[in-house]
Amino acid sequence: MDNQLFEYSPITERPRLEWPDDARVAFYVGLNIEHYQVDRPSTSIFGGTTGLVPDALNYGWRDYGPRVGIWRLIDSLDKHGLRASVLLNSEVCSRYPQIIRAGRERGWAWLAHGRDNSTFQAGMSRDEELGYLSDVVDTIEKATGTRPKGWLGPALTETFETPQLLADLGLTYVLDWCNDDQPYRLNVAGMLSVPYSIEVNDVSLFVGKSLSGPDFRQIVIDQFDQLYEDSRHSGRVMALGLHPFIVNQPFRHKYLDQALEYITGRSGVWLTTSDEIAEHYERTCTVDVADGSGRGE
After folding, report:
1. What is the DSSP annotation of 235-275?
2. Who's near 225: CB < 8 A, 6+ residues apart?
3. pLDDT of 225-275, one tens digit each?
4. Where does 11-296 sit in CATH, by number?
């Protein structure tokens, strides 16, 4: 079947996108704060034990994130004046309340990221998925004091019903479709796609490709530099997807910190959140989704 969720729109044929204060690049940190079930396989560093219950090797590796890695990352974000866009499993709210408290104190943006990273919606009926999503969103709202506006599926998963169900629940954007450097409207009333990155992402770079810390730093800088150059013509978004159990291992952390120092030290950068990017786009840009035409206001 053909994709019905969004239209083809070449970036060269769009109206100029402008960010606040004439910034060229809108930069946000997509901070994945996740919970994993102890008896189900998930993201792993060693495949040889993924069929075991419990899989102490891989579960413990992932569990380093909420216990240690997140606190190292918080120090770095604070140092560079960055607020996280948190991709939050709702199970985190009851299991790691200290993290929620730290984020509330810092004014983080809270996005829904499923119940846990061991559960996907695949195979759910529409009614089952609606109940699941409602529970996730309501739980996050109760814990954080803010109803989520954005969504990232665990492992970037959706069903064909997900965007409409999220819109019905009051959400306004998704990050799952990593196909653009600018926000765009979906063919679902009130819903946007906001850029995220599956490549400039510590899972892909460290776990998928086994790259080094210096490799990661250079890739992040190269990504930023190219987007900054492209933004001579129209504003761009740079998302940096992070998982504290990966990038905030002691031997990697300093390379993330160096990359953040590079980006935050440049002029013409809007250090922001995915919520603010979506809100700005919705407020200043109008697009006819039927034919892809649009104008900036």
Report:
1. -EEEEEEE-TTTTTSHHHHHHHHHHHHHHHTSSSEEE--HH
2. none
3. 999 999 999 999 999 999 999 999 999 999 999 999 999 999 999 999 999
4. 3.20.20.370
